[in-house]
Amino acid sequence: MNDIPSVARILHPFDGVEVLTLAVDDAFEMTRGATILSEQEKCRLARIRHGATRRRYAAAHCLLRQALTRYAEGALRPEEWRFVFGAHGKPAVAPGLPEIRFNLSFADDCIAMSLTRSREIGIDIEPMPGDIDEPMPFGISPREEALLRRLPVDARARQIARVWTFKEAIAKAIGCGIDDRFTQIDACPVLLTARSDYWATVDGETFDVRLADVQFRGKTYFMAVAVGPVAASG
What we know:
Layout: E1 9-11, E2 18-23, H1 24-30, H2 39-47, H3 51-71, E3 83-85, E4 91-93, E5 100-107, E6 110-117, E7 119-127, H4 142-149, H5 153-174, H6 181-184, H7 188-192, E8 197-202, E9 205-216, E10 219-230
Antiparallel strand pairs: 1-2, 2-6, 3-4, 5-6, 7-10, 8-9, 9-10
């Protein structure tokens, strides 16, 4: 019950960073009963009326607890993890427990989870869009929009999704939500160079970002993982 299922895909985009992808159904089957959830999590689960949403919540939060125990090499049992929340609702491991940072993202029936130590981390996963002329989403800067407008329609939607995934992962690492800083995150390098590794500076801090195309159950997804600078010890 405390092991990550063998069907989970585990990636290491950076040294010391672990990313897991797993289907909601597989995670739910592994964690049926949700006995390792806290009382607060169980209460929230009971308030969720939509069946698929309840299933995803139970699967993701049980998987998170098991992933933390695995990453911490068994320092705590899954049910012993406690969490606190930042100003914008970003969860974190409670003070006094192993200093592991984590983040979650969902797309369709895929759960993506990232874990590391001593560095803020964010992850975003989005389905690859079809070849349609999508409107510019919130948070696209004028320069980014100008670069996107130069692209043919069949490439524009894909690049919008890559830019959004890049920005979202960084925003989640910062824990700021989608606010004015979203526009300040410069995604122009994503549009100007075809690479997998990038960096961006926000509020004086530099974030390393890894972009990848991920295959999951026959579909292609964009995934971005962003990590901040190593936190000062003490």
